[in-house]
Amino acid sequence: MRRINPLKRIGLLMKNVGHTGIYSVSGRIPVTLLHLDETYIIDTKAEDKCGYNSVVLGTGNLRNIAKPQQEYLRKLGISNKCKLYESRSHDLSGIECGKKISIEHFVVGQYIDITGYSKGKGFAGVMKRHNFSGLRASHGVSIAHRSQGSTGQCQDPGRVFKGKKMAGHLGNSRVTVQNIKILSIDYENNFIVVKGNNIPGFKGSYVFVRDAIKKPLHKDVPFPVGLFNGVIS
User: Fold this and answer.
1) Do 112 and 142 have their domain in common?
2) 3-state secondary structure of 71
3) What HEC string does 93-151 produce?
4) d(CA 153, CA 193)
5) What is the pLDDT of residue 99?
6) Residue 2 — pLDDT band, cuts 50, 70, 90?
7) DSSP-derived 3-state class of residue 192
8) CATH number assigned to the domain comprising residue 205
């Protein structure tokens, strides 16, 4: 499906706080809470120099970060050990280094896309990994009820085709859920409440939240980014 939203604003890393439910006249609605840590604009990359427009952002205050990131922050005069990430933007006008990102970057009723890494579940069999039905639980099957059965052929072609569904590693893969609606925003505590409990990742993990590409941009969102006055300490 082609992109409906032509204007690209920056996306933000937010922490998956967990799932809960809210009640309305239609019944219980499952929701997920996402929290925005203190996020600052660290640097910008312009199209004339780098070939594209993007914003380098820093969020949180980690205990340890990689030495290349430490050196990068030191050259910019930043003492915080923040989590660095980059997000492309359609326009860099009005974006200044040192400014703090506000939760008002998003608005109630807006649709967003959320990207994260699914929960890692280790090595899994075909019944759990691919929803196979398994073998017969009666005559002729001995201690192989959850196996996958035949995987290939004999003399012709004499091999297992590539892409065959088999047992293996399950989870810990990059997942994007689209068209998630924002139901409410807690501006005081920097929380947004989104509809559904299908957000990838475990409790406390970071997810990347951006405008939905298959929905029109909400008329009330700030462009190119929601800011309020603040500097990095």
Assistant:
1) no
2) helix
3) CCCCCCCEECHHHCCCCCEEEEEEECCCCCEECHHHHHCCCCCCCCCCCCCCCCCCCCC
4) 52
5) 87
6) low
7) strand
8) 2.40.30.10
138, 200: one domain: no
Supply the mean pLDDT for the chain.
89
Q: How confident is the model at residue 91 (pLDDT cuts 50, 70, 90)?
A: confident
What range does the domain containing 160 cover? Answer: 122-170
Sequence letter at residue 111: Y
54-73 per-position pLDDT tens digit = 999 999 888 888 898 888 88
Tracing tokens 């399950």 back to the chain, one arrives at 170
Task: Note whether residue 233 is domain-resident.
Answer: no
- Are the CB atoms for 53 and 47 separated by under 8 Å? yes
pLDDT above 60 for 1 = no
Ranges assigned E (strand) in the chain: 12-24, 27-35, 39-45, 54-59, 83-88, 100-101, 111-117, 123-124, 168-169, 174-186, 191-195, 206-211, 227-228
| Amino acid, single-letter form, for residue 204 | G
Alpha-carbon distance of 79 to 70, in angstroms, equals: 9
